[in-house]
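Hi F.,

I've been meaning to write this up properly since the lab meeting, where we talked about keeping a consistent format for the predictions we share between groups. The idea is simple: the sequence comes first, exactly as it goes in, then the structure tokens exactly as they come out, then a line or two of notes. No screenshots and no reformatting. I'm using this chain as the first example so we have something concrete to point to.
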Amino acid sequence: MPFSNTDTGSKPADLYKATNIDELSLKEKVEDLTDFISGCKFGIMTTRDASSGALISRCMALAGKVTSPFIIPFTSHNKETQSNISQENGGIDLLFHTNTESGKTDDISSDPHINMPFLNSSGE
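Output, unedited:
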């Protein structure tokens, strides 16, 4: 039995967990996420350092969101290339500008798992 020293009555103790159980379609979840992220200026990207295993977090400004497949140009190592942005299962791609020679790109190269939480101005 989980420990709790608070009686919440008939309401769930963790509203976010209860909300995650809702049977929403993937399309509705993506739309809700897109709406939420639209109210956020920054996210905190956390990566893992390959040599130490330490978690490293840094603030990242959201440059754009892609919710439908299309081709965007981008510059990499002074060479114009094109990237085909596509989603699987109706997903969303978040775009960030960064220096390709930074530590975060080294971290992602060695371990592509990242965490990208967002916090809006109301603290949600």
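Notes:
Confidence is low (pLDDT under 50) at residues 70-89.
The CA atoms of residues 72 and 98 lie 16 Å apart.

If this format works for you, I'll send the rest the same way.

G.
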